[in-house]
Write a structure and sequence with these properties.
- This protein is of the alpha/beta class.
- The chain folds into two domains: about 110 residues, Enolase-like, N-terminal domain (Enolase-like, domain 1), CATH 3.30.390; about 240 residues, Enolase-like C-terminal domain (TIM Barrel), CATH 3.20.20.120.
- The strands form four sheets. Strands 6, 7, 8, 9, 10, 11, 12, 13 and 15 form a nine-stranded mixed beta sheet that branches. A three-stranded antiparallel beta sheet has the order 1-4-5.
- Helix 5 runs parallel beside helix 6 and helix 7 packs parallel to helix 8.
- Bound molecules: magnesium ion.
- It holds the Pfam family MR_MLE_C.
- This is Enolase C-terminal domain-like protein.
- It comes from Micromonospora sicca.
Length: about 350
């Protein structure tokens, strides 16, 4: 296990819940008796309560005992999706390394082990950090010139009028065809979210992600019932139990799925299929960190027939010092790797 620090190309990168000049995570190398190595990666996510020191301490204190059962005994690694003892990002870390290792042992790409389709490609939704409207529009124009056509605009409700100006400036910069979503990271009240949604509807925004505080499920539903935009849960969907609770209350139109929130590939697939069973689309959300983690999410996506065709799997492109190579965004799209396991390798 080692700690990886990935400086951001833009050290002023900021969203509604904080600012940070680097992304920090854990690299896990899981070795079998023949010396084959499976790779896992999990990022620190302070706003979801995933602290790097705690994550490392859990791996150090608990993983040796778990691995003593044998690295291929996955039940002892991650438990059942419903009965969870380790924190979700640590489960995801172990689960990812296990899947990579098994894929390498049997010599097939992970998506095939998961029953996924061949040659799956997704459009990449790039996240625009909080800045002035003109600055955000300039960043968006630069990304559009690289081939991106999906953009997620961070907003913060300080004040709402500034967020509207951001959306307007970015639409002007990227043209009518680009798909735009907004992400408030919990910074709006339900009432404010409805008026903001009405104000930005004319700019062709499709998705409004996590408008209200994480545990305000009734607020999400209240906004959903009064909004023309697709209301999507992100922070609110931080466990299988939370996803089920929202589905039962008809609280959202869509769910953002992440390996570290749900605790690994099996749990992500289960959450996506539960959403599909309720007629709710799901999408692969941002996996900010190494290509290892993004590759794992992409293989999982390939196994999901009802997934939205765009995902936030390109944020590694703005991070430096990745410990892995073998996955790149090309013309604003990303294609599942075909080498065994996750299909990425250490630099
Ligand atoms: Mg989000």
């Amino acid at each position: 296990m080692s700690r990886v620090v990935m400086p951001k190309d833009d050290p002023t990168w900021r969203f509604a819940l904080g600012a940070r000049a680097e992304s920090v995570g854990i690299l896990l190398e899981m070795q079998d008796v023949d010396g084959q190595i499976g790779l896992g990666y999990a990022s620190e996510v302070p706003h979801l309560g995933y602290n790097i020191d705690v994550m490392e301490a859990v791996v150090r204190s608990q993983v040796p005992a778990i691995l003593a059962a044998g690295p291929l005994d996955r039940r002892s690694l991650v438990g059942s999706p419903w009965k969870q003892q380790l924190p979700a990002p640590v489960r995801s870390l172990l689960d990812m390394a296990w899947h990579d290792l098994v894929g390498k042992i049997v010599g097939v790409p992970l998506y095939r082990l998961l029953g996924g389709a061949e040659n799956v490609s997704l459009r990449v939704n790039r996240i625009l950090a909080l800045k002035t409207p003109d600055e955000m529009a300039a960043v968006a124009a630069g990304l559009a010139a690289e081939g991106y056509d999906h953009f997620k605009i961070k907003v913060e409700n300080r004040p709402q009028s500034l967020d509207i100006a951001r959306v307007a400036a970015i639409r002007e910069a990227v043209g009518d065809k680009a798909v735009m979503t907004v992400d408030a990271n919990q910074s709006y009240t339900a009432k404010e979210a409805v008026t903001f949604g009405q104000a930005i509807h004319k700019y062709g925004v499709q998705v409004f992600e996590q408008p209200v505080p994480q545990r305000d499920i009734d607020g999400l539903r209240w906004v959903r019932e009064r909004s023309d935009l697709t209301i999507e849960a992100d922070e609110a969907a931080d466990s299988l139990e939370a996803v089920v609770a929202m589905l039962r209350k008809d609280a959202v139109d869509a769910v953002s799925l992440k390996l570290s929130k749900l605790g690994g590939i099996d749990s992500l697939l289960l959450a996506a299929n539960l959403c599909a069973a309720h007629g709710i689309p799901s999408r692969i959300g941002a996996h900010v960190g190494s290509r290892i983690m993004n590759a794992a999410a992409l293989h999982a996506a390939a196994a999901l027939p009802h997934l939205e065709p765009f995902a936030e799997l390109g944020e590694f492109a703005r991070l430096q010092n990745d410990c892995a190579t073998g996955l790149e965004v090309v013309d604003g799209g990303i294609t599942v790797p075909t080498a065994p396991g996750l299909g990425v390798s250490l630099v």
